[in-house]
């Protein structure tokens, strides 16, 4: 067995829709994965199948019972994928909606008084929710500053701001702007060292597609992902809630079963498509390891994904063959720093002599899909301290190839001048 994904690339790419071409644009390289990853063909098939089924859960008929079985199987698959043997999973409108809901429940259900803590690197999905509900609950918000140079926040910076009366804490697993990950387990431990009973929420939306999620090791109470960013489809989000969080006063129908987070009839197809995602990670892990359990294969897949993506981002930064890397371009700023061991499949950069919008447009003209991050309510927290109005985000996943990186670097040679 080998953990080198380059030899598996044809097989891997064959499992995804629109790998090499866009139905609207034609041939293209897809480096916009942080905005939404490619979709598994199995997910497309499953979505079509369940969109045609008229039955709902909770009825006394064979179809309804089958739907309930599929949902239960998906929840079991999620427990393995996230390594969360305790707590419960449920789906909602989106990752953002679920983030708001879990954070609202934690803040409004926590003990009177106290404060809420979070960091300046967070995406608005958790940041806005924490600020809003802290204000409603009359709990001061403690702002932990991230490091502008690395785009990260550390356990030490959380510890410096912690107080014993912190009731709720939020953590960003990986930044969708810089692509730099944060040490969730260490930050969680720093929080609990000062406030052991704090309710801890983690935004895992950007991190999920890169594998290596291990909820059991984090000592947290909530974790949220957006499946369209991890090879599934739009239209739903997935949340995990600890038993402690679920025991609070959650919004639910009167006299319904205790601890029921789900509101209204769920889309069985949403659950089923995440089973497809888990099955894919299981398959990939079997190709790169001799692991004999689903969790072991999922962990092996995550390790192989990380290694392959590091090879690609290193090539983007430092060049390959006779092609100059992005970090070697004149007047370049690499967000998060050039040498950052916690980078996850993303390089975000700006040139001082070519506007980001022009770079994105010129790359698109050459069939290379990237994205511009502006200093707005999504990315201003990262870009404004650096004095950058806009940057180019090149985000990849493990199905991207070194040849695609070469295409990007060749195009940038002409664009940068």
UniProtKB/TrEMBL annotation:
Domain of life of the organism encoding this protein: Bacteria
Pfam families linked to this entry: Aminotran_5
InterPro entries membership: Aminotrans_V_dom, PyrdxlP-dep_Trfase, PyrdxlP-dep_Trfase_major, PyrdxlP-dep_Trfase_small
Keyword S-adenosyl-L-methionine applies: no
Keyword entries, A-Z: Lyase, Pyridoxal phosphate
GO molecular function, one term: lyase activity
Keyword Lyase included in the entry's annotation: yes
Aminotransferase class V domain mapped to chain residues: 29-246, 303-408
Protein name: Selenocysteine lyase/Cysteine desulfurase
